[in-house]
Amino acid sequence: MQEISAIGAEPYVVDIHQLTDNxxxxxxxxxxxxxxxxxxxxxxxxxxxxxxxxxIKEVLYISSTSVxxxxxxxxxxxxxQESEDSLxxxxxxxxxxxxxxxxxxxxxGGLIGYGRDPGNFFRKGKRVQNPExxxxxxxxxxxxxxxxxxxxxxxxxxxxNACADTxxxxxxxxxxxxxxxxxxxPQFEESGVDSFKLVxxxxxxxxxxxxxxxxxxxxx
Length: 220
Prior knowledge:
alpha/beta
């Protein structure tokens, strides 16, 4: 709260599980960015009811590439490869079907950068599953860059995947990431059949003209 106040913005605490009277004041804007880890359909339905009563016109909903099934293929936004059982996908559709707003969904890959160093992801004996599967990751600077591009270009009513251009295997990437910062190489779970998805971000480059700041994960 103090950090937000220090940059001249007005901070609010909004708990979508227990909305309070401050939600009306908070929603006094035309654009709302939602980046909440909750997967409660009921809570998001309640938030949407408040949005419908507000002056909000556009919503940028931050989702995840976890909505896609792992069928060992490349997935894009137009192929219908989302899992109908995914709660995130169901929440996405809540916003898409709300007629009073235009919603753009951004499906980010796994977040890296700054305090999230992938060299620390698998310490203390935690084993890496599916070591030959490709990683779908994105640097925080690109998360912010893509959000900014969508807003500045007013690209509403759309869906974008957002991952770095390269997709090294987990074995390649996490081994290099750990050794780079002086950690031992992670252990890998060698049994079982790898299942994966390779997430394409071509649309964000083609439609928004976005150029990734960190396109090559192995160059980090």
